[in-house]
């Protein structure tokens, strides 16, 4: 029982190191890519449409990403012209966030080993 | 901790902890300079929250522009905040979003301030540097 508790805590500690934002974006992109591009969801996922507002600038993004995942570039652009830029921006940002988190955790591990006698050069090195 | 309460008393939460850690190794002069520059560069979490709320009125992604994430800002603006889902997600995470931005700024300013002041001391009268 205590072992389980300790295991759970260490998993939770590791989870906290992983930033939520890239995980959400990547899971979202994965889910969109796994969708069937020819299907129409009823009721629609779109919150605007559910509220009765027909004008939604984001509708078609899901289909666009699903087409793109299958290599159908023309269909992707037709479904939503911003599908390709959206994937690029989200992947880029997720990558940067994960990279930040990775360098940060490796830096905190390194600085706990390093002597604290020269904080200036230490913080300089950390930013290179 | 005393240094941050003296120079930047308005910080709280994660930001306070992170900046306190950066200021620990600074001299009083460096801390003073750091506080001035950082105060001018940091972004306010409440402003991020209000700009994110503006996403429900049609102008999605203003908070991302405010945090200098132009790509994400444009994406939100032209897709209605990814069909409102992105706006909602950011609404709940406005403090973390702001902290991520401020942490980068704080790290940059700390490096700059510590670099500049060490060089000055070295050229002025070498021995006092440490």
Description:
The complex is a heterodimer of chains A (128) and B (130). With 128 residues, chain A is an all-alpha fold. Chain A has a domain of 79 residues. Chain A is built from seven helices and no strands. Chain B is an all-alpha fold. Chain B has one domain. Helices cover 75% and strands 0% of the residues of chain B. Chain B has nine helices and no strands. In chain B, 35% of the residues are buried. The mean pLDDT of chain B is 87. Chains A and B meet through helix 2, helix 6 and helix 7 of A and helix 6, helix 7 and helix 9 of B.
In a few lines, what is going on in this structure?
By secondary structure, chain A is mainly α. Chain A is built from seven helices and no strands.
What key phrases describe this protein's structure?
heterodimer; A: 7 helices; 0% strand; disordered C terminus; B: mainly alpha
Protein topology:
The complex is a heterodimer of chains A (128) and B (130).
Chain A: H1 2-17, H2 20-34, H3 47-50, H4 61-69, H5 73-79, H6 83-113, H7 119-127
Helix pairs in contact in A: 2-4, 2-6, 4-5, 4-6
Chain B: H1 2-7, H2 13-23, H3 28-41, H4 45-53, H5 62-66, H6 70-78, H7 80-83, H8 85-92, H9 94-125
Helix pairs in contact in B: 2-9, 3-9, 4-9
How much of the sequence of chain B is in beta strands?
Answer: under 5%
Assembly type:
heterodimer
Tally of DSSP β-strands of chain A: 0
Can you give the mean pLDDT of chain A? 76
List SSEs of chain A in N-to-C order.
HHHHHHH
Helix content of chain A: over 70%
The low-pLDDT segments of chain A are: 114-128
């Amino acid at each position: 029982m205590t072992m389980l508790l300790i295991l759970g805590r260490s998993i939770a500690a590791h989870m906290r190191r992983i930033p939520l934002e890239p995980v959400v974006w990547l899971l979202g992109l994965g889910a969109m890519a796994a969708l069937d591009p020819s299907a129409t969801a009823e009721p629609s996922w779109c919150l605007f449409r559910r509220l009765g507002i027909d004008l939604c600038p984001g509708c078609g993004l899901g289909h666009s990403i699903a087409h793109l995942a299958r290599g159908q570039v023309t269909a992707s652009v037709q479904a939503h012209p911003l599908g390709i830029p959206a994937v690029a921006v989200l992947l880029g940002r997720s990558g940067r966030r994960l990279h930040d988190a990775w360098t940060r955790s490796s830096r905190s591990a390194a600085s706990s080993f390093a002597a604290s006698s020269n904080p200036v050069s230490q913080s300089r090195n950390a930013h290179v | 901790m005393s240094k941050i309460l003296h120079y930047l008393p308005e910080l709280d939460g994660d930001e306070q902890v992170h900046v306190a850690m950066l200021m620990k190794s600074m001299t009083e002069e460096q801390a003073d300079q750091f506080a001035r520059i950082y105060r001018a560069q940091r972004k306010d979490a409440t402003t991020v929250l209000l700009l994110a709320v503006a996403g429900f009125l049609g102008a999605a992604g203003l908070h991302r522009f405010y945090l200098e994430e132009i790509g994400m800002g444009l994406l939100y603006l032209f897709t209605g905040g990814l069909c409102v889902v992105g706006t909602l997600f950011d609404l709940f995470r406005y403090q973390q979003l702001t902290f991520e931005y401020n942490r980068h700024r704080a790290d940059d300013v700390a490096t700059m301030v510590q670099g500049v002041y060490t060089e000055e001391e070295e050229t002025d009268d070498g021995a006092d540097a440490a």
